[in-house]
């Protein structure tokens, strides 16, 4: 698929991008090269290849899910204008 100068100008207009006329040819060439690369990648047979979450196939290190802070609800709600059953009460915004 080849990108034409008119396509670049139309895309720039839709994206509300200001492109100088002298830059159109460079953008046309760059976008055409990107589309050629995408076409080339689409030709690769990926049947039987399982998708990966990370290109290096690394596992994510997770910390243990433990409480590390003390409960400060009472202290934090002292400045609240209105609370009930340990919850902050706020004015209704949507009817």
Residue windows where pLDDT falls under 50 for at least 5 positions:
none
CATH class of one domain: Mainly Alpha
Mean pLDDT: 91
Taken as a percent bin, the fraction of beta residues is under 5%
Structural class of the helices, strands and pairings? Answer: mainly alpha
CATH architectural designation of one domain: Orthogonal Bundle
In percent, how helical is the residue content?
25-40%
Question: Mind summarizing the main beta sheet?
Answer: 2 strands, antiparallel
> What's the β-strand tally?
2
Give me the CATH fold name of one domain: Histone, subunit A
SSE sequence, one letter per element: HHHEE
Distance N to C terminus: 53 Å
- Strand arrangement, largest sheet? 1-2
Number of helices: 3
- The geometry reads as elongated
Estimated radius of gyration: 28 Å
């Amino acid at each position: 698929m080849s990108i034409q100068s008119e396509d670049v100008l139309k895309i720039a207009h839709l994206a509300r991008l200001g492109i100088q006329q002298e830059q159109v040819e460079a953008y046309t060439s760059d976008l055409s090269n990107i589309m050629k690369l995408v076409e080339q990648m689409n030709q690769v047979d990926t049947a039987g290849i399982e998708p990966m979450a990370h290109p290096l196939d690394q596992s994510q290190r997770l910390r243990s899910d433990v409480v590390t802070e003390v409960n400060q609800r009472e202290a934090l709600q002292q400045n609240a204008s209105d609370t009930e059953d340990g919850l902050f009460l706020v004015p209704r915004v949507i009817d």
